[in-house]
Design brief:
Length: about 475
């Protein structure tokens, strides 16, 4: 094992120490612990830590302390010390600093494993000595415990600590805490209503900073979409339909999987390890899993719980780097005669709602506005938001791979109707209602009288962006005209 390369990163160590010198008295030293390796920083660190704790950390004070040591001259004296610590080119404030410290810690764990493993190999290969794998491996086991300490099951905070907790700048990603780092958000709906499209719309909103289905985006973020529904042909069609936002390269912000050959086997340790590596590489603010029923082994509460725990095990431990998790789920099959539900009453409609609905911080439900295959209007409702207000439902057209507001859609009529406007409105009915030219209000009344449809269906049929948009024109005076 003599030829093994010792893991280290001298430049990163210098950058970390330079950051500490630039930010004295801020407790950065406490996060570094004993993770330095390169001489002389590994020997200088105790002096840096002591001075920082006493709020007396300056370059002159550090030089004075190191001058007392036996390695001061061997590093070239004051000039070399200042060159190496005082002019570090990389500064790593905030989350980047924490990530750098974690990298150094990982290197230190690797060195500890190599050291312990070398001793184990040496002891096992010497046949002249008594050998106990339990005793010889104890040091390796201890190194493993230090490298991966178990997080305490419980953490207690005082009321004062709760009040003084500082929310990270990009903790709330969208809405009134509808989407937050470390939180789980569920998007539910029946097949074909646009759930996956909503996930892509979220990713694009994260790249542009623009609203996501009526919710304000507070901080831009990268998105990983891990989906098992659509193959390369479908993805080509969807992303070809989406207009590239001006000045934004979506390749810098979004990654999406074609349908994987082996599904989404979260129970597989190799799959989770690969997922961890992708998360580490791309550092997303949001991860989408689509769909939920491809992530669980069975439709049992224990399977749901195991899938949630598997997801959490793949996320970074650093709260500042932990992404929001969005799970795309199906709704349970409705029984005939069930009335239309709204708001929080939609929560039990999630398939597996007992588990998935309880762990989620927020839940959205996407519904078809009508059973008409040509009607691409959908209704978007927040059924749960633990950390803020749910907000009002909204109606949208599925357009250009994304969504456009369905202005004039009557949500009250939509929710009042058990059938949700199940009467299909034909082109001939719209043409007859408009006649030689009429206001939208009068056209709506005629459609309702002629077909028996609800207000919401009539307004949807007459919308400028609706399914008859190719036949409808509206004059400056507000008169609708039908063009064949």
């Amino acid at each position: 094992m003599d030829n093994i390369k010792i893991p280290k990163n001298t430049e990163l160590e210098i950058s970390i120490l330079s950051t500490i010198l630039d930010n004295p008295g801020k407790g950065l030293c406490a996060e570094l612990a004993d993770d330095l390796f390169t001489f002389p920083w590994s020997k200088s660190y105790p002096a840096i830590e002591a001075l920082d704790a006493s709020k007396a950390l300056t370059f002159p004070s550090l030089e004075q302390e190191i001058r007392k040591t036996d390695f001061y001259d061997s590093i070239g004296g004051s000039g070399s010390l200042k060159d190496l610590l005082g002019t570090g080119e990389i500064r790593m404030p905030g989350p980047d600093y924490k990530h750098g410290v974690q990298q150094l810690r990982d290197l230190a764990h690797r060195r500890a494993a190599i050291k312990s493993g070398s001793k184990l190999v040496s002891s096992a290969s010497d046949e002249t000595r008594e050998f106990s794998i339990t005793e010889s491996g104890r040091e390796l086991i201890e190194a493993a415990r230090k490298a991966d300490p178990r997080k305490p099951f419980l953490e207690f905070r005082t009321p004062t600590e709760c009040r003084e907790w500082e929310m990270p700048e990009d903790y709330v990603l969208a809405g009134d805490s509808h989407l937050t780092r470390g939180g789980i958000c569920v998007v539910g709906g029946v097949p074909g209503c646009g759930k996956s499209r909503a996930a892509v719309a979220l990713a694009i909103a994260g790249a542009t900073g623009k609203d996501w289905l009526g919710l304000s985006v507070h901080s831009k973020f990268k998105t990983l979409i891990i989906q098992a529904e659509n193959g390369p042909a479908r993805l080509k069609t969807e992303f070809s339909d989406i207009e590239t936002p001006e000045g934004i390269n979506l390749d810098d912000w979004i990654r999406i999987t074609p349908q994987p050959d082996f599904g989404l086997p979260l129970h597989d340790a190799e799959f989770r390890d690969e997922l961890k590596n992708h998360i580490e590489e791309h550092n997303p603010g949001v991860i989408v899993f689509d769909p939920w029923n491809r992530m669980v082994l069975d439709d049992k509460q224990k399977d749901y719980r195991a899938a949630i725990e598997s997801i959490n095990s793949c996320l970074p431990s650093d709260p500042n780097r932990k992404p929001a998790v969005v799970i795309v789920a199906h709704l349970r099959k409705q029984s005939s005669g069930e009335g239309r539900k709204r708001g929080r009453d939609l929560l039990p409609e999630l398939s597996g709602s007992g588990m998935i609905g309880s762990v989620a911080r927020s839940v959205f439900v996407l519904e078809h506005a009508s059973p008409d295959d040509e009607d691409d209007t959908v209704v978007w409702t927040c059924a749960k938001n633990n950390d803020g207000r749910e907000g009002c439902s909204s109606a949208w057209f599925r357009r250009n791979g994304l969504f456009a507001p369905a202005e004039g859609f009557d949500l009250e009529e939509f929710f009042k109707s058990e059938e949700g406007g199940r009467i299909k409105i034909e082109a001939a009915s719209v043409k007859a209602a408009i006649g030689g030219g009429v206001t939208k209000r009068d056209a709506v009344k005629r459609l309702i009288n002629d077909t028996g449809c609800k207000d919401s269906a009539a307004y949807s049929a007459l919308a400028s962006g609706g399914r008859f948009k190719g036949n409808l024109d509206e004059t400056n005076g507000g008169i609708l005209i039908w063009n064949d």
